[in-house]
């Protein structure tokens, strides 16, 4: 039986994966930043803004992870919670 061959990937596929992983890290880092901010004393206006940005980042993370890893859980919040 011949050995299994690795599937060929083009440079473009690798570049897209690298780009998506970088974007996932950026969204995850932003989520952590917003969560830390919410733990501080904020005005109502500031808190509202940070909460909205947190929701936007979580949504972007979920959407990007669903496209990057289509076989994973539909809710990618575990990615944001993985790093403490």
Structure characteristics:
84 residues; mainly alpha; 70% helix
Can you describe this structure?
The chain contains three helices and no strands. With 84 residues, the chain is an all-alpha fold. The chain has a domain at 43-84. The radius of gyration is 17 Å and the shape is elongated. The protein has helices at 11-38, 44-68, 77-82.
> What order do the helices and strands follow?
HHH
Largest sheet: none
Give the helix proportion (percent range). Answer: over 70%
Total strand count, please? Answer: 0
Distance between the termini: 46 Å
- Write down the overall geometry: elongated
Q: Which structural category do the helix and sheet elements fall into?
A: mainly alpha
Strand coverage percent: under 5%
